[in-house]
Amino acid sequence: MKNSELNRKNAGVIGIAYKACVWILSIMLVVTGMAPSFAANAEAAKAGSSKSQTAVLNRVYSFYENTKSLPKTPKKNFDKATLKNKATESIKNEARNAKTPNEAKGNEDKYGKHNKIKNKRGQTFELNSSENVYAEFNDNEKLTISAKNILGDMNIEGNKWWNMIKKLGGDAFDGWKNTKVKNIIFNTKGISLPKKSSNFFREIKGEIKGCENLNTSNVTYMSNMFYGASSANPDVSKWDTSNVIHMGSMFNSASLANPDVSKWNTSKVENIFRMFERASSANPDVSKWDTSKVENMWSMFYRATSANPDVSKWNTSGVTDMSDMFYGASSANPDISNWDVSNVKNMKGMLQKSAVKALNLSSWKLNQDLLNDNGKMQDVFEGCINVEYLKTPAGLRTSINGANAVFKIVRLKKDSAPSIEQENQNLNDKYEINKDGDSSAIYHIYNKNKYVGVTFDKNNGDTESWINHEIVEKGEEFSEGGGIVPVENPTYEGYEFLGWAKNNSATISDFDEHTVILQDMKVYSMWGKSKVNITFDKTEGEGNMVAVEVVKDSKYKLPESTFTAPAGKEFDKWSVKIGSAPAEDKQPGDEITASDNVTVKAVWKDTKPAPPAPGKVRITLDGNGGVLAGGAFATIDVDEGSTLKEQLESAVANKIFTKDAYKLIGFSRSKFATTADYNLDAPVYSDMTLYAVYKEAPVVTNVTIKYTEVGMDEDEVIENVPTGKPIGDKLDRHERALAGHRFLGYSKEKNAVKPDFFKKSLVTNDLVLYPVYKETGNVDKAKVAFKLNDGTDASLKTEEVTRYDSIGNKMPAKDKVPARDGYLFTGWAKSKAAKYPDFFRSTVVKGDMTVYAVWKSLYNEKLGQAVLKVFAKTKGYELVITPPAANLHTGFEIFRSEKKDFKPSKDNKIAIVDRDTLKYLDEKADNGKVYYYAVRAIDADGSYNGTKVTYIGKLSDKVLAASLPKDRGVTTTVTGKGAVSLEFNKTMAAAGYKVTVTAPYDKKFKAIERFVKADKLVAAGADKVKASVTGLPMGKFLAFKLEALEADNNKLVEYGNSFAFMLGAVEKFGAKVNKKSRVLNIKFKAMKGVNGYEAKIVIGGKVKTIKLKKSKKLKGFIVGSIKLPKKKGNYTFTIREFKKIGKLKYYGQTITKVVK
Q: How far is CA 894 from CA 456, 879, 911, 914, 1120, in A?
C-alpha cells in the first residue's frame, strides 16, 4: 500500500521521463550510427555498438533514478519539454563518450595481454585521475579500496566509482544489486568520498567495513546512500556531515543498520524524507540534530519498527511535508507537543499505526493551506492502538481508530462552554474528528478507564476561561495528574474572579492543584465584588500611610495627612486621581466615589518663617533625601558678607541630616552634585539654598550559616556584609553537600522545608541562616515557561526542574530579558496581569506552569512634557527645546524617525542631553529628507533594588522637520520688459527668498536686491515654484543669485547662480496661412545686437523648426515659412531671439501665437 502510494506520487514525473527517454533513444540510435539496419551491422553491434547502447541505457537509468528520489513536493515544476531537453543532453554526452567498434578493438589489441594477467589475479580499478586511490576485487566477493600514498590525492571521483560498478555488472538504477561484490572494505584511513555520493552503496549484499575511516567533509548529497544494503551496519559515528544538504532515503530498507548519528552536524540538511524507511533495526539518537533548514520529513521513520526517536527539541519551523512520517513505526511514541508546524502543508497519515500514547498538540498552529485541504490531514491517528489521550490543535480534521477502549470526546471552542460530542466511543471503530472542519475547534479525547475530565464553568460570568476543560489522570491530584488550570480566567463585569469551587454557590475556594480527581467533574468560577486600592503618595514628604482596599464604587472619606512635611513646607491639600481621570484637589474629610484605583498625593506649601533681621541673609539647608536630626534647624541667618565655614562644618560634624547607609560630607548649590563643592570661604550676600551631599557608608555585619544543625563539624561565617541591603553574590559558594540529600538553599527558620532567604533578601545585624536540604528519591520533572509579557507572544527558554523543587539558578538572569522601552523589568509572576513579582528562585514548582515578566512603567507624570521646535539648517536640523514647567528633569532624550507614528526606542534614540542643553544640532541628519522628531524629559535620580533608574516624562508632540531641496538649480526666463521669472525647487522651511542681481561684464553696475515672501510664490508643479523679479535694465547680461531665508533672515539654502540676457520680444510680427498651398508665412522686424532667432511650431504632436532668412523684398525684416498638413486645426508656434556668449545661447522674451 505504501509503495503504491509513493509510486502514485512520483508517477507524473517518472512517466514524463520515461516517455522522453523512449523518444530520445529512437533519435540517438541514428546519432550514434546504430540504425536503421541492425542486420547489416551485426559484427559492429557485437564489438562496439552494444557498448554504446549500454552506456546510453545506463544514462537513461541514471536520469530515472534521480527523478525517483525527488521530494514529493519538488522545488521546481518541470514540463515535458524541459525533461526531454535534459534527458537528450545527458544521453548525448554519454553517447559521445562511448567507444566505436574500431576504438574498442584497438584498445583490446593494445591492452589485451595486460588485462588477461589482471583477470587471472583479480580486477583492479583506478578511482581517481592520479591513480592514487584504487579498488581490488578478488574471488572472495570482496572489494577492497586502498590508497598508495596517504599524502597524495585521496579523493574518489564519482564517475570512476560508477564506471567500476558498471564494469562489475551494476548500474545506476540498482547500484550493486547485480554485481558479484558482496562486501566492501576501506583499507586506508582518510579516503574522501565525492561531493555527490547518492546511491554510493545502494543494494550492496554484505557488509561495509572501514566507513569510520572515510572523509565525508565535502559531501553534499547522501540520498539513497545505503538504500537496500540489507546486511550492512556501517560505523558512521564520526562522519563530518557539515556540508550535507540531502539525506533522503539514506538508510531506506537497510534492515540491519542501527547507525550512531548522535553527533552529526545537520545544520545544512534540507531533505530527510524516507531516511530510515523500513530500517527495521534502527533506533537512531537524533535528539541533538539541528533541523532548522529541513523542508521535507515525509516517511522519515516509515515502518522503522525499532525506532523511538527523541525529537522533542527539533526546530520544524521550515518543514512543509510530514506525511507518513511515523507510519507503522510501531515502537515510536514521539514527544512532538512543542513542534512548530505553521508551514506544514501535508501531514496525512503522520502518526498512523505508531505507538503514540498521550499527545498534547493544543499549542500547534496549523497552516491555512492545510486547513483548506482536508485530504492533507487525514488518517493522522489511524491504527494507533496504544493511544490513551489526545488534545488536538485548532482546526485539525482527521480520523482515529485502533484503540479498543471506551473514550470520551469533548469539543472545545474559545468563548464557548465545552460540549460532549461522544460520552462512550470505542475507538476500535473509526471516528472522524472535527467532521465539520471548524477551524477554531479543538478536541479532548481520553480513555475513561485511565483519565477523567475537569470542566471549568464561568458560573454566570460574561466570558469563558481558556482552556476551559482539562484531562487528568484518574485518582491523582489535579496538577500531579497532568492538569493545568486555565491560563485565561473568566470575567464578570463588576466582580473579581476569586478562584474555583466544586459548588456554584460556594463562598470559599475548595478546588486547587492538589484536589484529587476521581471522576469527571465540573468546577465553578467564584466571584466577589470588585475592589479597588487607595494608595497615598507622600510626594516630597516623609513617613508612610497604609494603602486601603475598598469595594468598587463605594464612598470613601479622605483622612488627615500623617506624613511628615519636607523642610520648610506644610500640608496644603490632597491631589486625588481616580483611574485615568484628571486629578482633583480635595481636603481631608471630603468624600469621593472609588470607581477605580485611587492615588492620593500630598500637596505641600511653603511655610513662611519670619524674615531675617536687617543686615542678615538666610541660608536654607536642604536635606536632599536625608532626614533632619531632632533639635536641629534647616535655616541659618548670617551677616551679609560673612562666610558659612563655621556653621557648615558644625552641621557636618553634628550630622544634621541622616540618610540610611550614607554619611553627610558637605553641601553644594546643586541638588545633583556628587561632591561637596560649596566654597566654605566664599562671602554670602543674598539668601540661597544649599543641598546636602552624601557618600555611601553602609554598616556591616557577619552572617552565620548553621551547618552544625545538620550534623556537620563547624558553621560557615560570611564576614563584612552590609546591613539593610540585599546580600547578593556574597551568598554564593557557601553551600555544602549532605549525603543522600539535595541542597535547596537557606532559611531564617530552623528545620525549614523550603528556603526563604535569597540573594535579594535584606541583611540584618548578626543574621543567622540555616541550610535547607531535601532527601533524594525518584525525580519527577516539571516545566516552567517564561513569557516576556511585553505585548508580543515572545518567551525565553522553558526550564525543567524537579517537581516540588524551586527553580534556583535556572531562573533567567535579568540580562537575558530583552529591554522594553519605557519599562523596567522587576521579576516574574504567575499571573499575566500581576503588578508585583510572586515567582522567585525559591518558589516551589508543583507542576508545569507558565510565568510572566513583570514590568514597572518608568513614566513619571511629575516630569511633565517638553515642547519641541525644529529648524532646517545648511547642515542637518536644529532642535529647540522648551523644558517642562515643573523643572524636575535632569536632561532630555531625543528621538528621530522617518515615520510619523513611531514609538520611542533605543533604535531611534539619537541623543541624551543635559538639562541646560535647550538647542541641539542634529548634524548627522540628511536635511534633504523629511524626519519626525520628539523629545522627553528624563530624571536619572531614581533607583530600584540598587540599580540606577532613568524615569521618563511625557513624549513631546512629534514635530515634522521640513527637508531642504537637493536640486538647487534655478532657471531664469525673460518674461517682459525689465521682468524675469525664476523657477526652482521650494524650500519648505523657508520664510522668504532673497534675489541678488549683478552684471558680470559691467563693473559700474550696482547690485539689485529683491525679497520675495514664501506665500507669494506661484506653483509650477512637482514641488517647483516661480518668483517674479521686475524693474531690471534691458539689454544687459545679468546674473541672479537666489537664497532661501529663515524668519530672522538668516540664510538657509543658497541656490546655484542663473543668467539671462535682457532681450525684448520681436516687433512688427505677422503671420498668415495660404489656404490653397497650406503654407504658413511669418515675418518680423530684425533686431539690432542679436545673434539669431528661433521659430518652432507643433505639428502632429512633434516640434518642428521654421527656417528663417532675411527678406529680399522687405528691407530690415526676417521671414520664414513651413507647410502645414491638409487636416484643419489650430497650430501653436513660438518666436524668440538669442544672444551668444561663447558657445551658450541666452534667449529673450518668447512670443507665442496660434493660427487656424
A: 50, 9, 5, 11, 68
